[in-house]
Every structure is written in C-alpha cells, then in structure tokens.
Sequence to fold (484 residues):
Amino acid sequence: MNASTLVQKVWNYCHTLRDDGVGYGDYLEQLTYLLFLKMAHELSEASDVRIPIPVSYAWPTICNKSVAKLAEHYGKALKALAKTEGMLGAIFYKAENKIPDPAKLARIIKMIDEEKWTSLDADVKGDMYEGLLQKNAEDTKSGAGQYFTPRPLIDAIVACMRPEPLKTIADPACGTGGFFLSARNWLVNNNKLTKKQKDFLRDNTFYGNEIVPSTRRLCLMNLFLHDIGRIDGEPEVARADALVNKPEKLVDYVLANPPFGKKSSMTFTNEEGEEDKDSMIYERPDFWATTTNKQLNFLQHIVAMLKDGGKAAVVLPDNVLFEAGVGERIRRKLLETCNVHTILRLPTGLFYANGVKANVVFFDKVQQKGKAPGTKGIWFYDLRTNKHFTLKQRPLALNDLQDFIDCYHAKTRKETERFKFYKYAELIARDKTSLDIFWLKDNNLDNLDNLPPPAVLQQQIIEHLEAALRSFRAVAAGLPQPKE
Fold:
C-alpha cells in the first residue's frame, strides 16, 4: 500500500464525521492517539521496546471493547495516558475524545487495526501523515495553515543549506516539523549513512519548540512516523516559548519560519486583571535590543542558538528588513556579527496567512576578528516582482525555485536579471540600513495587459476575503488572531 492510497483511505472517513461537527483537526488528533497506541502495541509484541501504557488501557482493550462501552473506556484511557511521562505523555497531553458517536469511533479503530503499521516503510507512513497534515492545512476553517510552511519552499531552503550528517538542527517554532523532515530526507537521500550516523539522525539531530500543544502533538507523531525519535524516549520538541530563556544548547543549523505578527505569543495580566504590555517584552541579556516585535526577537534568539560557524535560514516578513528604530539597530548588529550573504525575496500567495510579504534570510555566525563586519555584502534574489502564485490554482513548485538554488550554489556567483549583489558599504549607507531592496520594474503597475489571469485574480480575492473573515471570527470569539 502506498502513501496516497493510505491518505485517501484514512481521510475519506472524515467526511462522515463532519456531519457530527467533528473538524479535520479533531479527526487528525484522534488518529494520532489511536495510531500511537496501535504502533506501541505492535512494537511491544515484536521487540523488547516497552512503553509505559497501563495494561488496562493498551490497544487490545480499546480494539475489543463493545460499542456500548467504548466511548467511556476510551475517554478514561486518554486521561490516564495524559498523566504519563516522556513521549507518551507528550502525545497525550490534555487528550480527550472528540468523536461523540461510539459507532463511528469503533469504525476508525477497526480501520487502524486492519493495518500492521510497523511493517510499513517509514516513508510510506510519514508521507501518509504529511498528506493528512496538508489536507488539514488546506481546510481554511481549521486555521491549521498558520503552522504549515509550503513544502516546496522548505525543500528549496534545505537544498541550499545541504545539512551534513552528525550535525544538529533546530527550529524554535517548528509547527508540524516540516523543516526537520525535509532535512532528514536530504540526509538520507544524499548520503550513505553509517549506523552511527543513522542513530544520530534518529536520536540527536533535531531540537525544536512548539508552544501550541495540539500542534506539538502532531509534530511529534509526524517525526516518529518518519523514524525520528524513539517511542519509548523523551521528546526533543519542547512545549515552551523558545524566546523566554537563552538557549541551553547551541546547534549547527537553524531552519525556521517563526510565526507572523508583531506581538509576543505570551500575554500577562497585572494584579488588576488588565493586560500588562510591559511584561510582553522579553528581557534577555543576550539580546541586542528589547522589543515587542516577535520576528525581531526570534531573529536575535536564532543568532544566540548558533555555534560559531553555524548556519541559519529564516523566513521573515518584510518589516524585519525595513523597520526603523530597534529594527535598524538589530539589522546593524546582525550584519556586524554574522555573515548575512543571501536574501530570497518571496512572492505573495505562498502562505495560508494571505497577503504576507516574506523573505528567506541566509546567514552564518562568524567569530569576530577585530572591528571588521561579518557581512561583506548580500546577494538578493527577487522571486516576487512579476511572479504570481496562489495556494490552489497556481501553487509554488520546487521547480519555481530551481534557478535560485542554482544561483545559490554557483561556484562563482554572477549577477543575473533576478540575482544582484550589494556591498556592505552600500547597505549600511542606506536610509535606516534598509534591506528592503528591489530593482526590477513591476509590469503590473502601468500595464493592465500583464495582470495575472482572471482565475488567478479571483482566487487571490477569495483568499484575502477568507483571511479577513477568519480574523473577524477570532475577534468575535475573543481568540488570538491568525497570522497576519
């Protein structure tokens, strides 16, 4: 059975559950719980791996329970498993049954029980789960897209970085683990790994943070199905705000797409119950500047995470490139202490947060030698001007990024129409040290004949309206707004 067949089989049943008010995200969570229990049972029967699942709540007790008693038993099992430690406790943290109809729950359990999951190749299991995450992200009502970076973009970034075996990789806002999985695939497909390297890849390569519990759960399961981490071990994705404290571990690579939006993900209240805006500022002695701008804080944190000689590729919105005041101060320090060598200007229409103007900033952390800046100059690649993408009708493909990848790895970089070099002296002399640089003429500004096709324009309008509606619903419900 291949991944696409599995995805279709597992996903088809969700349509029935929608009639009962069970959303895609809730369905995916329940699949995660049940898959974990089934695979834990298979592993315990076939090897000496022992997962601390109480015998009274192991897979056979759930699989063989009568429909009349299933919902009650399953609910008790989830509560008991949530109190455990390690990977088990992380997967089942605050778990609850969100499928109210016991008969339908029994059908899902039967569907999972029909497969022997441990016998399936890691790529098949992993690709299946990735397919489900993709479908969940495409469902605009679930809001899951805000944790999902387009896979072609991730794969292009990893193809530029070319991570090496026995090196550590971190993502301080890892979502469902897309960067980790792409890096894992690169390492497996481009190296003949020794046993030592394979064990290191599984157990010691990846380190992440994900503050949203449900997203962290999906990330851990996604990694486990791709043979990253141990079912009987400790999770390497922490359920914590990465920005609160200085990093405990320095790494070789950071690959990240931090959450968009300027405010901190943490909100504090004072004794009167009012929002305390001062407390939303991260006071870090290792930061160059204090700010409430989330991306600027993530940028400073990522620099702090890197070993000397470590490399980073970070997706950042345009405001990080041009914001004045603290933004300028941080940019200057970044150019001084790191070798910021490449910036990819991304087009709109790539992210589920519509209208986002973002970039990928590539830099290396360097050891300071005297007063000479680490950055000698930056190569800019403009993939935005006169480029049009949408999530559905004209999605970004890896092939759209191939020219950038080729330019990035050229033995001797040469300027092209879309690839230009700016010296450090030119950059530092710009107003506010702005790195918001374009040079191509936008044909759409004065030539209506060059507008995107009507179908593409219609889809862009729909996506912007859907984004606005999600924000209005979040405000009405008193919830945090989706990425903007």
